[in-house]
Design brief:
The strands form four sheets. Strands 1, 2, 3, 4, 5, 16, 19 and 20 form an eight-stranded mixed sheet that branches. An eight-stranded parallel sheet has the order 6-7-8-9-10-13-14-15. The chain has two domains: 106 residues, Urease, subunit C, domain 1 (Roll), CATH 2.30.40.10; 309 residues, Metal-dependent hydrolases (TIM Barrel, Alpha-Beta Barrel). It is an alpha/beta fold. The two termini are 15 Å apart. Helix content is 30%, strand content 23%. Helix 11 crosses helix 12.
Length: 415
């Protein structure tokens, strides 16, 4: 859309939401005046929020294009108000220049700012190092584990030692696979009640400790994905006090749910790492409030319907989130930390971690934004999702806010 006027909207400018005004948008920019024939959208008092940046996005293509496609993923980002994402696919490790070139070519079909996380090992096997120096030169923003860290401590050291020459950050999902074993839920009272094998907290904390000690020894910056418990946050706090450049995020769904939501055994709640106890969820919220947690991640992973419509323990873990993340988390997040900090956690900080361009709204500048009405509600239905799969714990839920539209790189998407 070349031009658009948004009336009765409250834009987030200079750290706060302004009063009601009109925003004239022309060719992707916020300008003083739009052409007289520009279409008009009445926001009815909604908020204009700087567009969001997503951590933990995996569209599964090309290896699993039977599940999802880049086209569907880009549509989901437009529906949810995300101008960019950090992409890391468990099905498609970026471990050489050929794979990186193919992925960049796929991303060139969209103006969205897609940053790429390469694998530090070949095929995520943690037995042979990837071409990290070349991958760094050709534009990856860091190196990850594909959310399946099965490295020995020695290989972990070798990887970070070699990767440190690139100056790029390492990204880890801390989960000891031998301690996870066949577990699918948090080890605790709920797992005992359900008769399921649980995943203990130490499956995370032992790996967090190993990563942080290795990174401190080598002076390597790291990012810890999807932290789930207070013990891990304490280790991160101590490492920062010792001088380590360590950032971390928490998953959207670990802030919204806990293991008591598993009592009806709905497989949409099957996530790895698992939903933990109410006390753990409270600790994560405390980490949000005191600044220990840098960002909220989406962990958008499509799963085939038939891979969810089975017994809980036989299902494939993963959940969609891009289309519903903002209306689901906005009100509880603002209640906990305020509007400015909420935007930092959902937009500014994720972008900084991914070396992307942070977004802000100002007259005369590019305008990537999402229109959110904080007083309307959203009943999440299958039609809210971009693809043929709808594996979200929020399916059927009523959310306390509603996305009205997004404006990303000049493209207007009305929900």
């Amino acid at each position: 859309m070349d031009s658009l006027v948004i009336q009765n909207v409250r834009p987030f400018v200079n750290g706060r939401f302004d009063g009601l005004c009109s925003m004239a948008l022309v060719n992707g920019n916020w300008v003083a005046e739009a052409p007289q024939d520009a279409p008009v959208f009445d926001a009815n008092g909604a908020l204009a929020i700087p567009a969001l940046f997503a951590l933990g996005v995996d569209f599964q293509e090309p290896m699993r294009d039977d599940v999802y496609t880049f086209e569907k993923g880009f549509k989901a980002m437009h529906l949810g108000g995300f101008y960019g994402a950090l992409y890391e696919s468990s099905a498609n490790p970026i471990d050489d220049i050929q794979r990186l070139s193919a992925l960049k070519q796929a991303f060139s079909a969209s103006p969205l700012e897609m940053k790429i996380l390469a694998s530090f090992s070949k095929n995520y096997k943690c037995s042979q190092l990837s071409e990290m120096l070349e991958l760094s030169r050709y534009g990856v923003v860091g190196f990850g584990d594909g959310n399946l860290l099965n490295a020995t401590t020695r290989f972990l050291r070798l990887s970070m030692e070699y990767g440190s020459m690139t100056g790029k950050r390492f990204f880890f999902l801390p989960l000891d696979l031998s301690l996870r074993c066949a577990g699918s839920v948090h080890e605790g009272a709920v797992s005992d009640m359900l008769g399921m094998k649980g995943i203990p907290r130490i499956a995370e904390t032992i790996v967090v400790h190993t990563i942080l000690e290795t990174a401190l020894f080598l002076g390597q910056s790291v990012h810890l994905k999807q932290i789930t418990c207070a013990e891990s946050l304490k280790l991160i706090e101590i490492a920062r006090q010792r001088g380590l450049d360590v950032t971390c995020d928490v998953s959207l769904y670990h802030l919204l749910f806990d293991d008591e939501n598993l009592l009806d055994l709905h497989s949409h709640f099957y996530l790895i790492p698992p939903l933990r106890s109410k006390a753990d969820k409270e600790a994560l919220w405390n980490g949000i409030k005191n600044g220990l947690i840098d960002a909220i991640s989406c962990n958008h992973k499509p799963v085939l319907t038939q891979e969810k419509q089975v017994n809980f323990e036989d299902a494939t873990p993963g959940a969609l989130s891009l289309e519903v993340a903002l209306p689901a988390i906005w009100k509880p997040l603002v209640s906990a930390v305020g509007e400015s900090r909420a935007i930092e956690l959902l937009s500014m900080n994720p972008a900084k971690i991914a070396l992307a361009t942070p977004q802000k709204l100002s007259l005369g500048s590019p305008a990537n934004l999402v229109i959110l009405h904080p007083e309307k509600k959203t009943l999440v239905q299958a039609s809210h999702f971009a693809g043929a799969v709808q594996n979200s714990p929020l399916l059927g839920a009523e959310l306390p806010a509603a996305i009205e539209a997004s404006y990303l790189y000049g493209a207007w998407t009305q929900v």
